[in-house]
Amino acid sequence: MSSLKKKALMCSAIFLCAGIIGLVAFYIPNRDIAFWLYCIALPLLFISLYLCFKYIRCPHCHSYLWRMHGSKCPHCGQNLYEDKPTDKE
User: Fold this and answer.
1) For 30-62, how does the pLDDT look when each residue is reduced to its tens digit (9 = 90+)?
2) CB under 8 Å to 41, separation ≥6 — which residues?
3) Cα–Cα distances in Å, from 38 out to 34, 48, 89?
4) Is the pLDDT of residue 86 over 60?
């Protein structure tokens, strides 16, 4: 698995956990417990968004990848799942 896929999977997993915790908090009738669950879910949501903006970038041109459809960067056209070629001269 490439580094970009691992980063995207990590961001998605944290985002999903925040969503599940928020959904559970919505259906809990006890307001005190729901409040503390929201206090856990919101920072997880912001951490997930921060990590996505920081790490989900093209390894070649470093532009943001809002949607990852296919294996090519929409900005530079390079393969997203290859490492940068190194200059061996």
Assistant:
1) 999 999 999 999 999 999 989 888 888 888 887
2) 18, 19, 21, 22, 25
3) 6, 15, 55
4) no
